[in-house]
C-alpha cells in the first residue's frame, strides 16, 4: 500500500509539473522542494553537430574558426581557475560560473536541450532564450546571433531555437545555463549531472576556464550547485 501511495503521489507531482510547462507557459515553472530533489529530466547537448576545433591560439583574444570547426568547451560550471585569476569576474557569485560556455562558430545552430516551452526571448546574456521544463527546471541559451522562437512556443528536444554568436560578448560562444526553481530560491545547477553525453568525444582544452580552484582541479562533476542572487532573475 505504501509503495502504491508513493507511486500515486509521484504521478500527481509529475502531471502538475507537466501541466505548468505545457498549458500555462506564462507562469513560473513549478517549484521543486530542493535543488537536488529527484528528477526525470535528461538533457542533450545544445548542438546538432559533433565537437570540432582546429586552432586554439586566439587572434586578438578571439578564437578563429575555420570552415569545418563547430564548437568546444571553454568554461565549465563552478569555481573556475580563470575566475580566480580575474577576481572581479563574477563577484556576486563568489567567482563561480553559473553555466557551461561552449566556444562556437558564429551562426552555428543551437537546439533545445530538452522538451519544454519558451519562457523568455530578449536581452539577458546578450540575445537570450530560455526554455521551461518539468520539475522546476529552466535552460538558458545566451549570446545568440539570432532567435528562431517566440515566448510561449512549445519545443521538442533538438528543435532549433537560434544560432551562436557575439551578442553581449567578444568571443562567439553559447552560454548554456541550467536553473531550478525551488522553495529555497533559484538554484544554478551543474548541467553535467543531467547531460547524457559521451564527454570523451567532446573537445575540452586544458585552459584555466576548464580547471577549478575548489575541489578536484580537473573534475567538473564535483562542482556543487549554488543559489543565485535575486539580481540574476530573468525578466518577466
Brief digest:
The chain is of the alpha+beta class and 236 residues long. The chain has helices at 2-23, 81-85, and strands at residues 71-73, 100-104, 109-111, 116-124, 126-132, 137-147, 154-155, 160-164, 173-182, 185-189, 226-227. The chain has one domain (2-232): Glucose Permease (Domain IIA) (Distorted Sandwich), CATH 2.70.70.10.
Mind explaining what this structure looks like?
The protein is an alpha+beta fold and 236 residues long. The chain has one domain (2-232): Glucose Permease (Domain IIA) (Distorted Sandwich), CATH 2.70.70. It has 2 helices and 11 strands; from the N terminus they run H-E-H-E-E-E-E-E-E-E-E-E-E.
What does the secondary structure layout of this molecule look like, with pairings?
Elements: H1 2-23, E1 71-73, H2 81-85, E2 100-104, E3 109-111, E4 116-124, E5 126-132, E6 137-147, E7 154-155, E8 160-164, E9 173-182, E10 185-189, E11 226-227
Antiparallel strand pairs: 1-2, 2-9, 3-8, 4-5, 4-7, 5-6, 6-8, 6-9, 9-10, 10-11
Helix count equals 2
Written as H for each helix and E for each strand, in order along the chain, the element string is: HEHEEEEEEEEEE
Q: What does the average pLDDT come to?
A: 87
Strand content: 25-35%
CATH class: Mainly Beta
- SS elements, strand count: 11
Derived structural class: alpha+beta
Keywords:
11 strands, Glucose Permease (Domain IIA), disordered N terminus, eleven-stranded antiparallel beta sheet, 236 residues, alpha+beta
